[in-house]
Amino acid sequence: MVFDAPPATATHSWMPSSPCGAGCIEPIDQVGTARMLARLAGVVGLVLSFPVLTVATPKSRRENLQRSYARAALGCLGMRLRIVDRRAPEQGASTDGFADSGTAVMVVAGHIGWTDIVALAAVQPVSFVARADMVEWPVLGKLARLTRVIPIERAHLRALPGVVDQVARRLAEGNRIAVFPEGTTWCGRAYGSLRPAMLQAAIDTTTPVQPVRLRYLDRHGTPSTVPGFVGDDTFADSAERVLRSKGMVVEIVLEPLERPGLDRRDLARRCEAAIRGADRSRHGVFDTEWIASGNTRVQDPSVDAQNTRSTSATAR
């Protein structure tokens, strides 16, 4: 299968970008319009009732309420949840979620689309670092505010240290925080490199990191790109595509915990290895070598030059 994915444009040279676009989205089985509208009504009903029930529920039971709501939302989106726990018992395999209540953990996952937030919350309620404009989105924005999303302006690089400090404070208070270190969304078959900057918060607070392998499967068990929020997608376009999908499964694999250590780049590499496993990017990211530069990584231009010379020599 060939992906017709035009290069993405970035506001500045350090802003993560993805080549994924409309050509990455492969259609799957769909439900009819009436079923889609019924699903939408279900989601809206959940969002409207959530604040009322949250206030009426004792604090000791709110976590279970939030998890139940997230799972109900996945059902309204036409998705089934599958959780695979690969942790050892001493690492939390006996825990009903990412970590015991009041225990800090940084959840690290690849980023495919807005449904990732619902899927992770269905495992256990967490706060997220997410794009700042999400709080203005219809329906999902209200949930973002209720779950104490930490907003990040991807176009403003100078704001990044402040966001990292905010994440560190939340972790020091014993909260669970989910981050998407790719810094942008990919289609689900292609992946970006994990940027190490956000992981500094785990190092500063000696917080364990929970790598999560997240993927969406169609009814045949084939990875699906339908939930990918990429290219020129609007929220309305993406929501309609998801609501029309049929037989979708979101699979959450809890990989063994990673200790933070002292080097965020090493931590990023370990998390990336845990999350990706044997997967390879359909856009060739894993064929690229990277060099460290400040708080992120950039492509080594000498690699392209070497590849060009090798290709020319082979042609001769």
Automatic annotation (TrEMBL):
GO molecular function list: 1-acylglycerol-3-phosphate O-acyltransferase activity
Superkingdom to which the source organism belongs: Bacteria
Any one biological process term the GO annotation gives: phosphatidic acid biosynthetic process
Keyword Lipid biosynthesis carried by entry: yes
Domain Phospholipid/glycerol acyltransferase, residue spans: 105-217
Ranges where the record places region Disordered: 297-316
Pfam family, one: Acyltransferase
Keywords: Acyltransferase, Lipid biosynthesis, Lipid metabolism, Transferase
Pathway it works in: Lipid metabolism
Stated name of the protein: 1-acyl-sn-glycerol-3-phosphate acyltransferase
Species: Nocardia mangyaensis
